[in-house]
Every structure is written in structure tokens, then in C-alpha cells.
Design goal:
mainly alpha, 62% helix, flat
Length: 935
């Protein structure tokens, strides 16, 4: 008979064959995700272990991870074991360090998630791989979110994702993952009870003989659960109740004695066969968690390490513990819980507090120490409070929920001295703000300011309150706090502010006032912030101030000055530091776009994307939308759509996904491939990402109405946007809608609207005489004055600025006026130029409109000139897509291609998807074989 009775795997041949088949599909480049589901002890883990052999035979490398019940509050704990041997620069190192990235957990976790997805992408580029995650029901929220995102990317990767979970009630993050699995019709392997024949086979393996009828009748009480069967048989063997006669194993005697009444009792009966020291150690080890570190166990229990090793070795021999890679773990959670439950609650609480105290001076992970302190129902001693104060900054990054729970509990504990209480209150506020609980953080700050007189003049608490308001998008309140502090200091009613404090409050006031469209106040505060920030060497305050003043100048059209100011910002944050309130590169890139320096702007945005990939991801969507906007006006519409897709797939912290959707809608309308319900377009919200693009939504909505035959309604929407936004944050690019306003006004005969938009356009080159702004002024004035020569001059200006859509619109409008003037040959030339430009963009709706507008004048256009780009085959690929295809064919991962082309991994993923669709391929591995061969 077996000594340890480790649960064997029987009766799962069909499930193993199914996993092997999915593995072969993944090896061929068609990724998929499989869910393995079943009750505790049913054999999920054993199935995953057995499946490794056929998966390896299919050519897959295998990485195995498992979530842990006690680490549900640790971000990405579920995927840690996938990355343990990924090398010294593994992205998980950034997580374990506890160093902050950004101002809030969402920023930090987004950065880590992108790095982990980059690593997975690199693995996939090296060859087919299987990623296996056991006990997903215990997974932390961040791991579940990452798994959800991975599922959306898996189709084109040589990746098999296998997830094993219990059919338990699940939280929102697991529900989102489950919904994704259902939506993609992911295969589910539901492990049910073993049939009687397979249960008999399992018993035969355990006892080494054919089970008799009475033994099988007793085994049937286990309900076909392999773990229950194994423990029941082990209990019978320990009790000496099984005899083997003539190769038949049956209970001795006519009646089976009363064996273990429950699985828990069967498990704990194993202790009766162990030595007393081991029987004493194991329940305490079980209470400390599923993984055993022998050195830490010895420290906590205050026993010699050799005694701890002896107990662990005996438990291994007895089948209670097993080795998983380099770790010692309990063979099953049910076993661990059964052993831990032997300890009285008070003894367990004392043990956990003892563990938390003992491990503070060791190399144990701080989240593990914090967990022990949090679950122990005891107050902390002075040393533990000091440890918590010292470790809190890293703890709130590595385990935000745990940090909040500990700090909230002990910051309000009685009998705290003033110094510790003040420190704990501040740390509690930081933890709440970091984890996105701004409302609760505000409550804590206000309580401290109202109930503790000594905190009334606390500048740090005031700064935290202003940050809390910023986090809640309550910019007016944030500015009010900053101005109140600055005024009180100036009047002498509070202690005098230091230069650095004054600079950062001024910077916050400046940037807040800008977003509130209080431009005079923003510039005044911003300039003071720059002056004080530079004198104090405070990069944060200086960056705030430069951004506030530069943004005001940009919005007002003073682009050269805005460029000079914005060019100074990136150098302040070269090390990746900086707040989440502004992107050091964004204003600089926007200025370059509006100065018609599109190539330079593209380089800046590539740098910004690379920085976001390394340091923080919160601005990534902003950068992608800026590129999409640049490609929209620059005529690279396929590239614009790729950036829009990437942006919409990026976690949307600041509200740019709606803008990306709108840009994609504008292109779809003009190409005639997408005509949405005007009222069904996603409406922008009040997040910062939408404010500067506020005119894009009415622009798309207006074109939708026009395409549906309602030009008057379209003009009404555009005129309203022009009037509402002319003096606000969208003013810098509001002129993008001017050509459509002028055209619609001319078509409808609304002279007042035509002259109004022409007057606004005339101001553009007086503030900054760029070619594109000059072209806009000439176009609008040409339509208002019915001057075709002015429109042809506008076309030349747009050609100089590299804006083919607007150039085409100028040529189209010129053609109409030339036709009306009877200048037929010139009309044909202008019309051909417009159609050629529209065709290059794929703007079939605009082309059809241009032809229709000149038809009443007897102008007909034959089939000539350039055609639209083919929709399929290699000729359909854009220049960017061809570059991506070549590198993908060479075996580079999306991450590697992104690094070489200074694009985001998501943009490359979007390009790969487009390439596969245009080439009618199903996997990126097929790109190499489909490459055109040189002649």
C-alpha cells in the first residue's frame, strides 16, 4: 500500500485529451483560453499537473501559477509565479519593490500590468507557450483584470491560457472575466464526480489490490470526490481495517467499523501517526498560511531550525505537505484548514500577532507581516506601530487594502502619543488617496482639521485635501484650498509658508484655474509657481507652473510662446517622476502639431509613449489620442484608426476612450463605412481627457446628420459648438470644424453663419501665421465672399502644412464656385485634385459629395485619376503596417516592434490585427509564409 496516499489522477483522460488538442491549436498560432472548473478535491490541480506532459509534447513551454487565499489583497499576486524566473529585470520586481509609480494605485497597477503583458508578449514571440493558473477563485483583483485583458489579446498569439477555479460566488472582477469567457465561447472543462469504475481504479492504486465489494460500498460514501476517497481509504488503512486476501482488498470482519465521520476528521487522524513535536508544529504552521518557510517558522515558534526541519520532513513523508518547485506547501487547502481549525481562536490570534512581531526584523515580505498583524485581534505594541509607520509607504503600494485596514484601525486606537497618531493619520490619508478612496480620505482630513487644533495649521494636511479634491475632479475646491492657504500665509493668520510649499500651492492653483477656464488667474499663479519653483529647485511646482502658463498661451493661439514654455517641461521629469495631473510631453507635442511640425510632433509623442511604457501608463491613452488626431489632420487615417483602437483598449483613467471613439467615427463617416445613430454616439463626460476635444463629439454628430440628409441640423450643431467653445479649452483646435461650417453655410445660404465663421478664422493667422491657420482663414473667407481664387490659395496653404483633408475641402469648394462661374476647365482641375486627395484618404463620402455638388452645373467626371487603396492583399497595407509585417515575420514580439518603432504595444497589436484582416490570415505566425517573395 502507498505510504503517503497523495491523490492520484484517474478518469480524466477526456479532459487531458481536450487540453492537449487546445495546446496543439495554440502551437499553430491560434491562442485560446480554457476554464477548468470543479469543487474542492475534485482533481483540478492533479489534472493541470498531468496535462503538462502532452502540452510539452505539443511544443509548448509551460509556466504555472496559483492564486493564494491569504494574498487576495496583494496586487498581481496571482501571476507572480509566472514571473519568478523571468530574470533580474522582471516587471514583477517593480511591484515587489514597493516604489510608487504615479499618484494613485490605478496608475501604478496600469504600469505593472503593461510590463507583465509585455513580458508575456516576449514569451509568445519566442515560441508557443501555455500559461496555467490554478485556484483562480482566490486571485486578487489586479490579476483577474490582467487575465481579462489577456483573454482579449489571445486570438492572435501562440498562447494557451488554462484557468482552474471552484464554482464559488465570485466578485465583480471575476464576473467580468467570466463574462469575457462566455462571450468568446471559451471551452469549459467541468470536473464532476468520478464514476464508480474510476473510483475503483483509484482505490486499486491506493491499496495495491483489487477493491472488494464492501470496500467499494464504503468508498461510495465519498461521492466520487478523489480527495475524499483518498483520505477515507487512508483512514481505513491507519485503523488497520483493510485486509488483502487473494488479491482482494476489503474491510476486516463482516461490518465496517465506524471510521472518520468527516473529511476533516480523516485528515486530522493522520496526526496520530506523527511524533508529538510534529503534531504540535503542523497546526500552527497551517494557521500561518499555505506555504511554509522553515526559517520563518522557527523564528515565529521560537524553536531550533533543526526541529522545524524535522517536523516538516515528517509531514512530507506523511503526505500532508508536498514540494511545488522550490516551495513547501500543504497538499490541499482543505488539509490546511482542517489542521488550522484545531487551534482555539484565542491561541490562533496570539500566534498571528507573535508572527507579525517576530518577522518584522527578518526578510519576510512586508505584506505577510502586515497580514499577521491585521488578523490578530490584538492592539499593537510600540515597536510594531513604529514598524507600520516605517513600512506604510511601501505597504500601501504592495497591498493597498491591507494598508488601509491596518492604518484605519490603529490611527484611531486609544492611548496613542501625539507624534505616532499624527503620522498614522497622514499615512491613512495617503493610503486612502492612493487606493482611490478620495471621499473617505476627505472625511479623515476634515475630522483631523476640526477635532485636533494642533492640525489646523498643518500645511501637509491642506495639501492632501487639495489633492483629494483633484482626485474627485473638484477643481474649484482644490483651487480654493490652495488660494486659502496662500492668502492666510500672506495675511499672517497662519504660519509663514516656505518657498517650496508656496510654489506647489501656486502651481496647483495655476493648473486648476486653467482647467476651470480662468485663464488670467491661471497665468498669474503659474508664473509665480515657475519663479518660486525654480528658485527652490522644486521640479513639481515648476512643471505645474510651466504647464499652466504654456497651456493658456496654447489655447489663446500664441503657439511660439507656448512651445518655448512646454519645451522646458520634459527635462524636469527625465527620471520618470511627476504627478498624474499633467503629462510632461503632451503640451509640447500639441504645440508642434498646431505649428504644422507633424514630423517633430510624432517624434515627441514616440518619446512620450516610451516614457509611459517605462514609468507610468496613465498618459498612454492621451498620447495615443494625440497621435490619432495628428494622423487625422495629416492624412494617415489607417494609422489614426490603429491609435484609436489602441487607446480604446487601454484602461481609461482620464477619459480619452470617448475621444478615440469619436475620431474613429469621423473617419468612418467620411469613408462611408460607418454611419451611427447621431444620438448613439458616446457622449463625453467631464474628465480632463474630454475637455480639450469638446468639439469632436458635435463635429461627428453633425456629419452624421448631414450624411442622413439633414444639413441644416448639422450646421446648427457646429455653430453651437463654435459659440460655446470659442473661449474655452477647445479653442486651440476649434478651427478644425471651420471648413465644414463654412461649406454647410454656403450650401444652405446662411450668409450670417458664413461671415461669422470667416471672421473667427481671420483671427487665426494674426495670432500665429502657420500655413494651416492661414489656409483655414482663406477657405472660410473664400466661401463667404464666393472667391474661388481665395479657395485655391487655401488649398496651396493646406498642401504646404501637410493637411490633405482640408486641402481637398478647399479644392472641392473651389470647384463648386468655378463651376458656378462657368470656368469649366479650372473646375475640372480642382475637382480632380479634390477627388484625388479624397481617394488617397479613402474618403468616399466626401468624394461623392464633391461630385454631386458640381453636377447641377453640368460637370461630369469620368473614371480617371487615382483609385482608393485596395481593401485586401499586400497593396492594402499602409507603410506602417508593412514595417510591422516585416518585423513580425522575422519573429519579433509586439513589444520588441513597439520598442523599435517607438509605438505602444497596443498600437502594434492593432496594426497586426489589421494586417491579418487585410491578408485573410488567422495568426501572426502565418505572416512569414504569406510575405511576397522577391523576384
Amino acid at each position: 500500500m502507498q505510504d503517503s496516499f497523495a491523490t492520484a489522477l484517474v478518469g480524466r483522460d477526456a479532459e487531458i485529451a481536450s487540453l492537449a488538442a487546445h495546446g496543439r491549436r495554440a502551437a499553430a498560432g491560434h491562442g485560446c483560453v480554457v476554464l477548468v472548473e470543479g469543487e474542492p478535491g475534485i482533481g483540478k490541480s492533479a489534472l493541470l499537473a498531468a496535462a503538462r506532459i502532452p502540452l510539452a509534447a505539443a511544443g509548448l513551454r509551460i509556466r504555472v501559477g496559483a492564486a493564494e487565499e491569504l494574498r487576495q489583497g496583494v496586487p498581481f499576486a496571482g501571476v507572480c509565479s509566472w514571473l519568478d524566473d523571468a530574470g533580474p529585470t522582471s516587471p514583477i520586481d517593480a511591484l515587489r519593490s514597493g516604489d510608487r509609480v504615479g499618484d494613485v494605485a490605478a496608475t501604478h497597477e496600469l504600469t505593472i500590468a503593461e510590463a507583465i503583458l509585455d513580458q508575456i508578449d516576449t514569451w509568445c514571440a519566442a515560441g508557443p507557450i501555455a500559461l496555467v493558473m490554478d485556484d483562480v477563485h482566490w486571485a486578487d483583483r489586479s490579476s483577474l483584470t490582467l487575465l481579462h485583458r489577456l483573454c482579449t489579446l489571445i486570438d492572435e498569439l501562440p498562447l494557451l491560457l488554462v484557468l482552474a477555479a471552484r464554482p464559488l460566488p465570485r466578485g465583480p472582477a471575476f464576473a467580468a472575466l467570466s463574462a469575457e469567457l462566455v462571450a468568446r465561447q471559451a471551452p469549459v472543462l467541468r470536473l464532476g464526480a468520478l464514476p464508480a469504475t474510476d473510483a475503483a481504479k483509484l482505490v486499486r492504486q491506493l491499496v495495491g489490490a483489487e477493491p472488494g465489494s464492501r470496500l467499494l460500498a464504503k468508498v461510495a460514501e465519498a461521492g466520487g470526490n478523489p480527495l475524499h476517497v483518498s483520505e477515507l481509504v487512508a483512514a481505513l488503512v491507519r485503523d488497520g481495517q483493510i485486509r488483502v486476501v487473494a488479491d482482494i482488498a476489503d474491510p476486516a470482519g463482516a461490518v465496517v467499523a465506524n471510521t472518520s465521520a468527516s473529511l476533516a476528521e480523516a485528515i486530522t487522524q493522520r496526526l496520530d501517526f506523527l511524533s508529538r513535536p510534529t503534531r504540535d508544529v503542523l497546526p500552527m504552521a497551517a494557521a500561518l498560511g499555505p506555504t511554509i518557510d522553515v526559517a520563518d517558522l522557527a523564528v515565529v515558534l521560537k524553536i531550533p531550525i533543526l526541529d522545524a526541519w524535522s517536523a516538516v520532513t515528517e509531514a512530507l513523508d506523511g503526505g500532508l505537505l508536498i514540494r511545488v518547485d522550490s516551495e513547501l506547501v500543504f497538499r490541499h487547502d482543505l488539509i490546511r484548514h482542517a489542521l488550522a481549525d484545531r487551534l482555539p481562536a484565542s491561541l490562533r490570534s496570539d500566534l498571528l500577532q507573535q508572527a507579525g512581531q517576530a518577522l518584522q526584523s527578518t526578510d519576510a515580505p512586508i505584506e505577510r507581516v502586515a497580514y499577521y498583524l491585521s488578523v490578530a485581534d490584538r492592539e499593537l505594541d510600540g515597536a510594531s506601530l513604529d514598524w507600520l509607520i516605517g513600512a506604510a509607504d511601501k505597504l500601501m503600494v504592495r497591498a493597498p487594502e491591507l494598508a488601509k485596514r491596518l492604518l484605519s484601525r490603529f490611527a484611531t486606537a486609544p492611548d496613542l502619543d501625539a507624534t505616532r497618531r499624527s503620522a498614522l493619520i497622514r499615512l491613512r490619508i495617503h493610503a486612502l488617496l492612493w487606493d482611490g478612496n478620495a471621499a473617505e480620505a476627505e472625511s479623515v482630513v476634515r475630522e483631523a482639521l476640526l477635532t485636533r487644533p494642533e492640525d489646523g495649521d498643518d500645511i501637509e494636511l491642506r495639501w492632501l485635501l487639495a489633492q483629494i479634491y483633484q482626485a474627485q475632479a473638484r477643481l474649484a475646491d482644490a483651487v480654493a484650498v490652495a488660494d486659502e492657504v496662500l492668502s492666510a500665509s500672506a495675511l499672517g493668520t497662519t504660519r509663514e509658508l516656505g518657498v517650496e510649499d508656496a510654489a506647489r500651492f501656486l502651481g496647483m492653483s495655476g493648473l486648476g484655474n486653467f482647467f476651470l477656464e480662468r485663464f488670467v488667474a491661471a497665468e498669474q499663479a503659474g508664473r509665480q509657481a515657475v519663479s518660486l519653483g525654480e528658485s527652490a529647485g522644486n521640479s513639481l511646482a515648476t512643471g505645474y507652473g510651466l504647464t499652466a502658463v504654456g497651456a493658456v498661451r496654447y489655447t489663446q493661439g500664441q503657439l511660439d510662446e507656448a512651445l518655448d514654455l512646454s519645451a522646458r517641461i520634459p527635462a524636469l521629469f527625465e527620471d520618470g517622476t511627476g504627478p498624474d495631473q499633467f503629462d510632461p510631453y503632451a503640451l509640447y507635442a500639441h504645440c508642434l502639431i498646431e505649428l504644422d511640425r507633424l514630423t517633430d510632433a510624432e517624434e515627441v509623442l514616440k518619446t512620450a509613449i516610451g516614457r509611459n511604457r517605462r514609468f507610468r501608463g496613465v498618459y498612454l491613452s492621451s498620447n495615443l489620442v494625440a497621435k490619432a488626431r495628428m494622423y487625422l489632420v495629416g492624412g494617415r487615417w489607417d494609422d489614426a484608426l490603429a491609435e484609436c483602437t489602441a487607446s480604446m483598449q487601454t484602461p481609461d483613467v482620464l477619459g480619452y476612450a470617448t475621444v478615440a471613439h469619436t475620431v474613429a467615427t469621423l473617419i468612418g463617416i467620411r469613408r462611408g463605412t460607418f454611419l451611427p445613430d447621431p444620438d448613439g454616439l458616446p457622449a463625453p463626460d467631464d474628465r480632463l481627457g474630454n475637455i480639450g476635444y469638446a468639439h469632436f463629439h458635435p463635429w461627428a454628430k453633425a456629419l452624421t446628420h448631414e450624411a442622413r440628409g439633414h444639413p441644416a441640423l448639422a450646421l446648427e450643431l457646429l455653430l453651437d459648438a463654435h459659440q460655446r467653445l470659442a473661449d474655452g479649452l477647445a479653442a486651440a483646435t476649434l478651427h478644425y470644424i471651420f471648413p465644414d461650417i463654412a461649406r454647410l453655410a454656403a450650401e444652405i445660404g446662411d450668409v450670417h453663419a458664413a461671415r461669422s465663421v470667416a471672421a473667427s478664422a481671420d483671427l487665426l493667422p494674426t495670432r500665429q501665421p502657420t500655413a494651416s491657420r492661414t489656409g483655414t482663414a482663406l477657405l472660410c473667407r473664400g466661401l463667404a465672399d464666393s472667391d474661388p481664387d481665395g479657395l485655391l490659395a487655401a488649398a496651396r496653404a493646406f498642401q504646404q502644412s501637410g493637411r490633405p483633408l482640408f486641402e481637398a475641402q478647399a479644392q472641392e469648394n473651389a470647384a463648386v464656385l468655378l463651376a458656378a462661374a462657368g470656368r469649366g476647365p479650372e473646375c475640372h482641375n480642382a475637382l480632380d485634385a479634390a477627388i484625388g486627395l479624397y481617394s488617397g484618404l479613402g474618403a468616399s463620402w466626401d468624394s461623392a459629395r464633391a461630385v454631386a455638388r458640381v453636377r447641377p452645373y453640368g460637370i461630369r467626371r469620368g473614371v480617371r485619376g487615382p483609385r482608393n487603396r485596395p481593401k485586401s492583399g499586400w497593396a492594402a497595407l499602409t507603410d506602417t503596417e508593412r514595417k510591422v509585417a516585416v518585423q513580425a515575420a522575422e519573429g519579433l514580439s509586439n513589444t520588441d516592434i513597439a520598442a523599435q518603432m517607438f509605438l505602444s504595444r497596443r498600437t502594434i497589436q492593432s496594426h497586426v490585427s489589421n494586417i491579418l484582416a487585410k491578408l485573410d490570415l488567422h495568426s501572426r505566425r502565418e505572416i512569414a509564409t504569406a510575405m511576397p517573395q522577391p523576384h
